[in-house]
Amino acid sequence: MAGSLFLAGMAHAQTLSIGVAAPLSGTSALLGQQIESGARLAASAAGAEITVVDDACTAEGGAAAARAFAQAKVQVVVGFLCTEAIEAALPLLKDAAIPVITVGVRTESLTDRRARTGWPVFRLGPRGDDERNAAASILTRLWKDELFAIVDDGTIYGREMAETVRAAAEQAALKPVFVDTFRPEMDNQIALVGRLKKAGATHAFAGGDGADIAIMARDASQLDADIVFAGGEALRVAQDTVPFAAGTLMIALPEWSDVADKKALEAFTAAGIIPEGYALPAYAAVQVAQAASVAGKPMSDALTGQDFATAIGTIRFDEKGDMSENPYRAWRFDGQRFTPVEGQ
């Protein structure tokens, strides 16, 4: 790929020192272990050195981790899952000229404030608003010729998802045939589905939990209402009581193990590591750091505006430090599993 920074020839470069910040104690320890294992595996493959510090998912832990990284003179830090930890660490890491590639913090203001704070932060993962923005852009494109409805469960999450989809539809000169709020966690949604059918909706976006969406589809079938339902990444949770209906759409991140390259997966298998959760993003973050380290410019400059080939695909950061491409995609349930919608 033209313009990409590949990992070839790394053996001749100076050894890269990488800090790994992860919650290795407390309730998030399992996730922290995923970060550590993925980062260690990638560092070993690239010949990089790592310094692992438990940030404890706290402000105190984040600040302590930053001081440890500065003392160890690492060139870049990867990891961080918690807003409190990374926000406490970044002022110290900025002073030490150490950029950070976070794999788990979604807080939008982290990068939105970058011009004001000067924090050298890069986000290898979604922003907090990526899910709803993806739902809006994808569904307005897929449903531009459909009679669609928008409903939500009244929660902050549900309302924000639904309102973003509605606003995008309005921008695209599309008008839903029905908009309403439903009561969640009901045994049935017959009344709601009856109103959807009366309105003529053939498609419906529901801001809410997967269980509620599964129940809506079941009740639509019972009322002979041919309605395709769509929801967010809450649909990733399998429904045991009421299964999802075939054709249900989900806007969600990919399972990284499904899209990772074969070589990386073989490396995880050989090391006896299950590539789940944050393991593959952490692996990719180290690959990005290693490639940026040989670009012949300061690390923070090298991380901006370049394509990086990684185990989970091409990564590029924009001027704010966010991924330049929204990672959310549309998936369709085929009766057994969610598969990618064609044409994305």
What features would you describe in this structure?
This protein is an alpha/beta fold and 344 residues long. The protein has two domains: 4-126 and 256-315, 3-Layer(aba) Sandwich (Rossmann fold); 130-252, Rossmann fold, CATH 3.40.50. It is 40% helix and 18% strand. The protein is built from 13 helices and 15 strands. It has helices spanning 29-46, 59-72, 83-95, 109-112, 114-117, 130-142, 156-171, 190-199, 210-222, 256-259, 262-270, 279-292, 299-303, and strands at residues 4-5, 17-22, 49-54, 76-79, 100-102, 121-123, 148-152, 178-181, 203-207, 228-231, 249-252, 307-310, 313-315, 329-333, 338-340. The strands form three sheets. A seven-stranded mixed β-sheet has the order 8-7-9-10-11-14-15, with helices on both faces. Strands 3-2-4-5-6 form a five-stranded parallel β-sheet, sandwiched between helices. It has a three-stranded mixed β-sheet with strand order 1-12-13, covered by helices on one side. The longest helix has 18 residues, at 29-46. The protein is elongated, with a radius of gyration of 22 Å. The relative contact order is 0.15. Residues 1-12 have low confidence and may be disordered.
